[in-house]
Each structure stands twice: as C-alpha cells, then as structure tokens.
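Throughout our pipeline, every protein is held as a single compact record rather than as scattered files. The remainder of this section carries one protein's record, kept here as part of the documentation.

===
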Amino acid sequence: MSDIIQLLPDHVANQIAAGEVVQRPASVVKELLENAIDAKATSITLVVKDAGKTLVQVTDNGGGMSITDARLSFERHATSKIKSAEDLFNLHTKGFRGEALASIAAIAHVELKTRTEDSDIGTHLTIEGSKVISQDPAVVPKGTTISVKNLFYNIPARRNFLKSNPVETRHIIDEFHRVALAHPSVAFQMLHNGSDVFNLPASNSRQRIVNIFGSKTNEKLVPVTEETEILKIEGFVLKPEFGKKSRGEQFFFVNDRFIKSPYLHHAVSSAFEGLMKSGVHPGYFLFLEVDPHSIDINIHPTKTEIKFDDEHSIYAMLRATVKHSLGQFNIAPVLDFERDKGFDTPYEYSKKSPTAPSVEVDRDFNPFKDKPKQGNIRFPYKREQASSWESLYVGLKDENTEVSGLGDIEFESEEVTGSLFENSDLESGQITFQLQNKYIVSPLKNGMMIVHQNLAHQRILYEELLKNITVKEAVSQQLLFPLELHFSKPDVDIIEKIREQLENTGFVFSELKNETIEISGIPVLIMESHVVNLLQQLVNDIKEEVPDSGFSQNDMLAKSMAAGMAIKTGVSLNKEEREHLINQLFACKEPTVSPNNKPVFTTMDVSDFDRKFM
C-alpha cells in the first residue's frame, strides 16, 4: 500500500491557520493594533474602508523593522517575543505565536512600509496570498504602516459568510475599544470611509473611558482599587441605576490584555446583588494585574480566554473589592437600624466647608392687614363683603323650584335585588379581570380566553408603528421643554442612520451632534420618561443585528420600539383598559402571535374544566 500522508504546502497551512486567527476584518484590526502596541508606539491611526472588507490600515510611530525583520515577520512561527517554552509563562507582550501576519498575508493583499529610527531608508514590501511580489527600499517615516486589502479575496466562501457592513463595523469598533481602553497612554485615531470616528488623545483610564463612551459617563463611574500579594485591581464600575439589559460596557483586562471570563463576571454581578433589578447587568472597566507565571494565555486562538492558577482567590478578592467600593461611595445600603439617612453627607460634598444658613425675618408682617405687602409670602385670602350672601340664593324663586343640576343625583338604596352578582356585565359575557397583573382573563361562550397583556400590546403597537413608518402619517406630541439626551458618538451615528424611520413613528429631532440628541416631539403612545430607555434599547438591538436597508430594517425597528413601549408585566389595568386592549388586539391582522412569533393568548374549553372535577 502506498503512503497517503504528506506534508501540506506552506500557503495551504497558512490558510488553515487563518481560519483560526482571522475570522472577520475585526480580527485583522486586533492583531495589527496589538503589534503596534508591542512596537512601543505612542500614536496609532486605524483607517478602515467598507467595514474592513476593502482596506484595513494601521499606522504607528513605533520602533519599526529592519529589511530582514520585515521579510521574516510574514513567515510562520517567526516572532521576537519568545525564544524558549519557558517564555510562554512570562509574557509581557500581546503577540507571541508568530502566526498573525502569516495568516493575514495568506488571504489578502498586504503592503508593508517600515523604517527604524537609526536607518535613513526604509522597506516597502508587497505580498499577495503568501507570495512576495516585491521588496524595495523606500523613503518612509519612522514606524510601520501595514495595509490589508481585499480580505478573503482567494477564499470567496469565507467572504460570503461575512455580515453586513454595519455589523462588521460594530465588531471593528469593539476591538478598537478593547485595545484603546487597555492603553490610555497611547493616542489613537480611527477613520471609517474617510470620516473621523474616534480621536483619542493620550490620557488616564478615566479620561479614556469618558472620551470613548461620552462625557456623561464620568458621573456614572465608581472607582475600584485594591492591591494584595496575589492580585492588584484598579478600574471603575457603573452605578447600579445605570445598568443595562445588554452586556455592552463590560471589560476585563488582565495585564493589559482584554479577556472574557464568565467566572469573574459572576463575581462582579454577585457584588451588585440586591442593588439591581432582575435582567439588568452591571457595567465595569476593571484592570487586573497578576504574576505572569500564574496565568496561561495560550489556551485560545484569539487569546481572549486565559487560565488562572488560583481562580477561587481571585473571585473572592474581586467580589469583595467591588462590594467595598459600592459601600465606600454610598452606593450600597449600610445595615444600621439606628442611623438616620437624612444626616448622610453626599460624597461630592464631603470635602466642602460648611456655611451658616441665613434667616430673614419680616418684622412688619401682620396677618390681619387687608393688603399684603409685595415680596412677602401671604395667604391669598380675602374676606367677602357681607352683601355677597344674596348671591347664594340666586335662582331659588320658591320652595318648589328644582335646584339646577340635582335632578340626576342617585341616592343610595337598600333594596334587596336577590342577585348573587351585582355586575350585570357577567350575564352579557363582557366582564374581564386581571390575573397576577400579567394576564387578562375573558369569558367565552364555551369557556374562557387568557391573554398575555405585554405580548398583546406588542402586537398592537408593532402593526401601528410599521404602518406609520411605511405610510409616514404618525402623530407627534410636542414637548414643552425639549429633551436633551447624551449618547456615545457611535450610538448617535446609529440614531442618525435611522432618523427618518424614527421621525415617521412620531419623533421630532431638533438637533443631533457629536454626543447630544435634542428631541422636541415624541410619539403619542410613549411617555416622556421612557424615551431614554427606548432609544438605548433600540441602539442595542441594532448593534446586535443590523439588517439591510428596506423593509427588514423597518420591521426590526418596529419590533424593538413595540417591545419598549408595550405595557409591562405588573401594571394594573382597569375594566375599560382591559376591554380596549382586547378589542384592539382582535382588530390586528395577526392577533394570535406577537412580533417575535410567541403566542399571545390561549383558550380553555368548558370540557377542560369538566375533566378537572371528574
């Protein structure tokens, strides 16, 4: 039998490795940004076109590479970070495998320009599908510029699996956030299709968080700090009232490397226990420093998961530290039954010197004077003249005249009707009642119907919103004072893209700028206090799954808004509201299912009850 096992060619092996390292354009952004950080760069610029499908370019002012290093950097397992197996457990850099550039060059057109500080001439290298096309001397600035063009050009099947441009852009921004947050001392800039997305100057951790997520984030942050022999913790958690239903603003960094850890996330969530509603997640930006020998980074291809030697101790310290910070800054309640909360000093006033209150007394005040003096507080009471008593009897000519307006007054009667139920609606089958403030129960001819009030209202609002977006005939209620809302710049860009659809539902935007949205009109079906949560939920839904333009986007928008505006579980409805909800439900085109295809109501026949009593 002939031999059938053979070694793979290098370009095929590189393409297979690319399947693990490069999953989408965001993976290229992550690897190139981390290489720039390892090169000791102090300023990094990211340029993206068509969500990274056409171009991903990273320019840094780091150390640069020599002619030989520029060529070797694209070979498999070529790295300057480690020399022996023991170095894997003492890592202080981002990349160490030497697979990233080789994998990227196997599936894209790569162009490299680099120069070291002590060289007068740099290197210009061009690679297409792992093949070196050219390598020439060039006059380039100090540092490195890598341009990755036409990603997956030679693997069309992988390119077809990429999502829409907004989704891929969202993943790129997420990777940019992770690297920028871990290195606040480095200046970052990001441009997408020629427009400036982020321009982050060198700063500290708190300023970097505020620069990325908006100026209003500063008042949401609670400092967290602790240092022990095993672990050093620094960072911030968001106050409980700013928790979100999505898990967007949650960042763990271990030795300046972003990681995902459900175990550590549970430690932070347990520290917020009792402070947040069910289904709401806390936000945090936590930087952990541990001994490199106590962790293993090399357990995942993307290096976003690591293994700790002593997870239980880190869990306990992290939970206790977050809980201590919440209590230290008067976020968590203190168990003291004799303490009067009215004497608590807010944290922002703790360093201010007290001032004596001023008391003003009006010594000329006389409550019996007819005319009060201007500028003083008086009771607006004026004694009527004695002659005004005649006005009480106007319209009463004699004793037999019927007093106007009293003919419709019904008086209580103690007449015994003999009926067990005083409400006659039961006989006509129109009575409804609520069960656990969640379900509406209504009798039918041969049984009863149970309606889920939240899902039913979602169906009603969904069809009405979809009609308003399509027909563009929504009604707005103008606000006496415009609402000024603050979002991060990427979130404002998302709202700007769907502004027309939102205006068709009834929103009126008077201004949209960098981090501020001013709303002067809202739909008639929504309360003013719910606008912030509705828009935030809408932005989160779009981040998770952005459909293409057209009907699918309108459909997603109507679904998200209907879910945010619908009557919540636990809201009590009176008789008229319950009946109106049911009448509106059965006026819909699809009353049986919610916008997300969940059943809205169920029916029970009399025979079902009969079987219960057999």
Notes: The chain has three domains: 10-200, 208-328, 451-585. The first helix runs from residue 10 to 21. Confidence is low (pLDDT under 50) at residues 375-381, 414-429. The first strand starts at residue 43 and ends at 49.
